[in-house]
Amino acid sequence: MLVLARLLFLTVAAGALGVTPAASQLSWERAGSPVVGPENGSLVVVGGAMRSPELFERFIQLAGGPEADIVLIPTAGEEDDYDNSYRGLEAWRANGARNLTVLHTRDPVVADTDEFVEPLRTADAVFFFGGRQWRLVDIYGDTKTEEELQKVLDRGGVIGGSSAGASILASFLIRGDTSGNDIMMGDHQRGFGYLRNVGIDQHLLRRNRQFDMIEVIEAHPELLGIGLDEDTGIVVRGDRFQVMGPSYAVIYDNQSTTGENGKFFFLSSGQIYDMGERQVVQPQPLQNVEQRPWSN
User: Fold this and answer.
1) What is the pLDDT of residues 259-268, one digit of tens each?
2) CA 125, 129, 132: angle at the middle one, nearest 5?
3) What pTM, to 2 d.p., does this model score?
4) Of 25, 82, 209, 225, which has fewest CB within 10 angstroms of its CB?
């Protein structure tokens, strides 16, 4: 099922870019082990307010199709209890997913049990809903749940998330402070790390957050910052991602400058970026972006 999903992914990506499947595979399958992204499997990272059918469809295709076993985790939200009647499942069902399981607890002791993680052991894919990302760390960090999540990727599955569920996928947790989401570097700074040395922000342009990541990169110049606007995401394989959706992904790299002193640049739907090489793969070159360190 997962092999079929990979073939579907390459075919769809090729269609979006106007190239043949073979050429698309060359773009995605860079030689060598990833230094940023997952060794196996795929990520679908969305900037919040996920509505576009293409985002749901791509995730479902990567998971293996409508019958894929998809686990949905709403724990970042505010409610104490979630089950299979959770209304967040409606959009997934409307877009064709048929085998959905809600996984949720507020107790890290429960999250560390074999019984709780059983659905993850057969899952083709996992998706994190939005809310506050620190809740995911407090409940699932350093438990059997976190271990089994990694195993979903290791066997070639898909992990995704929207809003808080996007930020948790990176190694550095943006807006992880328990006192409020306006603090970029707060009391929780460790994400699940499926993207290494990366911080992810969300709701970027819709909430006028496009300048907020700069302070993070100035404090942690080793990080790659990725900002995602609403209903827009990136599909990650290895070190490379493709942008999907009606708005933009924004890159913050302290070795890339736009204009005289600009500290971020925009990628639109269909564009491919290599996070290991920190460069745009397609199209190339990107206008008005220079490989030049930020000036103070």
Assistant:
1) 999 999 999 9
2) 135
3) 0.90
4) 25
